[in-house]
Design the sequence.
């Protein structure tokens, strides 16, 4: 807040190991000199990372906004997902060439140097367009606040789910009276369910797909089950590591057991679990973005949050959120139009829910239209028990934390390292990261203003 901004040269130096390639295409950053569309009074430049089904749904919502707000032109650009997007957005903000509106994963906001590379939202202006704090899950809103100011406006939460084939589980006697998967409350009960499901599974198919060799998915699963055990990461001041290696070992052993007991096949890598699920495998742990895929395949299925095998309900969750990339002259009609656009999309997220995401705007969740969505209405409870990464600069979707510890989780799951050894290595990495400085502003987590 008031600290001097970074220029592009400083940012390139600070980004260090991040990918900074000519393929970023700096010309795409724009100069703001494009002519307004005919009849429009204001233009909003909007960057997002939505492709595939997400992209189609976002375009539909933008078209609805354009129809309802003919005086505002929206110039939307879809950039490459992951680190390239974040690096490009940071460089645009540092060079005062940022778009008027952007999208980020909520877990990355703390590391994006709020106050330098992000501008805070005007909550009174958001309220003018129908969006206020009371409309959001309290924990979700809290994650969007840094140093007492709102730096992100949540659009959704996206969660890891347990997808199940109703036809296979019906044959195995694993559906309840409502036609949903029987409730699981312990690890032993979960493996009993897998055992019975395997008996009803066609030969040549694994019982469950787990993205065994993917560092992101394995990390997300770890976060969920470690949270179920009540595990913590750092103390309140972000100066000490509280990571519990005993609980971590318990989680790692649980994940590994899926292979050792023969329910998950390490020969099926990547997205093969989803493919096998479509072909008749009883279970797949996938993100909620797989809903359109399974709908298109006309599979008889359901989806629940990851099973509470350690007693406490918790499933990994992230959130897409709107942000205001830093502009030295932010304000006026364009800034108000950006607030209006973000508020509109958040309030009209029924289309977004069709892609599997849970809308962050809670009034949407109580509508008859949302309640009719299947399996979305089956796993909507995940909103109330989100397992998230710690609120530190190196966390968040595809962030440095996942890059460092994700491969360690994979090594345990795949059997190349012992769970207790991996747990100790994870704690060592957390200790190193906690003491390291954010390349965006040169501050450690303890110095980073991450207290809501």
Sequence:
């Amino acid at each position: 807040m008031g600290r001097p901004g970074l220029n592009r040269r400083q940012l390139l130096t600070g980004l260090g190991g991040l990918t900074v390639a000519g393929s970023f295409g700096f010309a795409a950053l724009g100069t703001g000199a494009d002519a307004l569309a005919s009849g429009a009074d204001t233009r909003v430049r909007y960057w997002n990372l939505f492709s595939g089904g997400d992209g189609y749904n976002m375009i539909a919502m933008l078209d609805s906004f354009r129809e309802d707000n003919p005086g505002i032109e929206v110039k939307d650009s879809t950039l490459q997902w992951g680190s390239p997007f974040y690096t490009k957005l940071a460089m645009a903000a540092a060079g005062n060439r940022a778009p008027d509106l952007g999208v980020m994963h909520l877990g990355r906001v703390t590391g994006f140097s709020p106050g330098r590379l992000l501008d805070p939202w005007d909550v009174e202006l958001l309220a003018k367009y129908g969006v206020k704090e009371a409309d959001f899950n309290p924990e979700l809103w809290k994650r969007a606040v840094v140093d007492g100011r709102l730096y992100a406006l949540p659009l959704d939460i996206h969660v890891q789910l347990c997808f199940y084939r109703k036809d296979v589980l019906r044959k195995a006697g694993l559906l309840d009276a409502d036609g949903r998967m029987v409730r699981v409350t312990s690890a032993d009960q979960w493996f009993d369910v897998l055992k019975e499901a395997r008996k009803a599974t066609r030969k040549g198919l694994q019982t469950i797909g787990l993205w065994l060799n993917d560092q992101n998915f394995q990390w997300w699963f770890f976060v969920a089950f470690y949270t179920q055990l009540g595990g913590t990461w750092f103390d309140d001041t972000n100066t000490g590591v509280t990571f519990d290696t005993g609980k971590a070992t318990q989680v790692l052993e649980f994940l590994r057991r899926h292979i050792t007991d023969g329910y998950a096949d390490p020969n099926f890598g990547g997205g093969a679990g989803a493919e096998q699920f479509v072909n008749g495998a009883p279970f797949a742990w996938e993100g909620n973005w797989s809903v359109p895929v399974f709908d298109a395949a006309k599979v008889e299925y359901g989806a629940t949050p990851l099973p509470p095998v350690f007693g406490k309900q918790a499933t990994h969750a992230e959130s897409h959120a709107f942000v205001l990339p830093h502009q030295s002259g932010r304000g006026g009609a364009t800034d108000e139009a950006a607030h209006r656009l973000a508020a509109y999309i958040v309030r009209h997220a029924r289309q977004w829910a069709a892609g599997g995401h849970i809308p962050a705007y809670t009034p949407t969740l109580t509508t008859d239209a949302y309640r009719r969505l299947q399996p979305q209405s089956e796993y909507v409870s995940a909103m109330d028990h989100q397992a998230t990464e710690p609120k530190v600069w190196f966390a968040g979707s595809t962030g440095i934390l996942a890059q460092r510890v994700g491969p360690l989780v994979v090594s345990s799951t795949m059997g190349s390292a012992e769970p207790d050894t991996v747990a100790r290595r994870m704690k060592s990495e957390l200790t190193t990261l906690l003491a390291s400085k954010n390349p965006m502003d040169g501050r450690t987590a303890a110095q980073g203003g991450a207290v809501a």
The mean pLDDT is 89. The first helix runs from residue 8 to 15. The longest strand covers residues 156-165. The radius of gyration is 22 Å.
